[in-house]
C-alpha cells in the first residue's frame, strides 16, 4: 500500500509533469533555439579566427628579428650598435602590436559570445516562462547577462590571485556547483519591468534566503543529469564498436541539450510551487 501511494504521489509530482506533452513541446522548441546558439558560437569563433590573422602576420615579422638577435648573441657588439638598436626597436613595436591585437581579439570574443548567449537565452527563458517576447525584455536580459558574466569573470580572476594552488580543484568544484544554481535563480526570476538592481537582488533574496526550498529542486536536476549520463555511458561501454560508440556520443549530446532546457523548465515549475507553499 505504501509503495502504491508513493508511486501515485510520484506520478502526480512536478518531475513527471515536467515531461508532459505540453512541456515536451516547449523543451523541443527551446532545444532548437539552443542549437542556433551553438551555431552562433561557431560564427563567433570564425570571426575571432579571422581577426587573429593579424597576430599571426606579426609573429612572422618577428621571426627574422629574433633570428638576427640570436646570431648577435655571444658576439662582440657594442651596446650602441645601430643594427642591434634597429632590431630591438622593430621587435618591441611588433610585440606591442601583437599584445594590442590579442587584447582586442579577446574582448571581441567575450563581447560576441555573451551577446550570442544573451539573445538566444532570452528567447528560451521567455518560452519557458510563457511570456510575450518584447524588445525591452530582450535588451534588459542582454544587459543582465553582460553584468552577470562579467561579475563571475571578476570573481574567477580574483580567486586565481588570492587562493593557493592546492585549493584550485576544490574552488573549481564549488564554482561548478554554484554557478548554474545562481544562474537558474537569476534568469528564472528575471522581470523586465523591474530595475537591473532589483533583478540582481534575486540572487540574495531568492537564491540565498530561500535556498532550503530551491536547492532541493537543483539537486533533483543534478541527479537527473548524472543518472542519464551513467545510463548512456554504461550502454556505450557494453559494445566495443566505433559506429555504436559514435551513435551513443550523438545521443549523449542531444540528451545534454534536451536536459539543459528541461532543467530550466523544471526549476521554473518547481520554484513556483515551493515558494507558494
Please provide a written account of the structure:
The structure is a single chain. The two termini are 27 Å apart. The protein is mostly helical and 277 residues long. It has helices at residues 2-11, 14-17, 21-51, 53-72, 82-128, 135-162, 168-188, 196-208, 211-238, 242-276. The chain has one domain (16-272). Helix 5 packs across helix 6 and helix 9 (211-238) packs antiparallel against helix 10. It contains 10 helices and no strands. The model is unreliable at 76-80 (pLDDT under 50).
Q: What's the structural domain tally?
A: 1
Binned, the helix content reads over 70%
Q: Write down how many β-strands occur, each being a DSSP E stretch of 2 or more residues.
A: 0
The SSE order reads HHHHHHHHHH
Largest sheet: none
Terminus-to-terminus distance: 27 Å
Number of helices: 10
Amount of beta strand:
under 5%
What overall geometry do the principal axes of the alpha carbons give?
A: globular
List the uncertain runs.
Answer: 76-80
What is the average per-residue confidence, as pLDDT, rounded to a whole number? Answer: 82
Radius of gyration: 26 Å
Which secondary-structure class do the elements indicate?
Answer: mainly alpha
Report a brief summary of the structure.
This protein has 277 residues and is mainly alpha-helical. The protein is built from ten helices and no strands.
Task: Kindly list the characteristics that best describe this protein.
single chain, 277 residues, mainly alpha, 0% strand
Secondary-structure blueprint of this entry?
Blueprint: H1 2-11, H2 14-17, H3 21-51, H4 53-72, H5 82-128, H6 135-162, H7 168-188, H8 196-208, H9 211-238, H10 242-276
Helix pairs in contact: 3-5, 3-10, 4-5, 5-6, 6-7, 7-8, 9-10
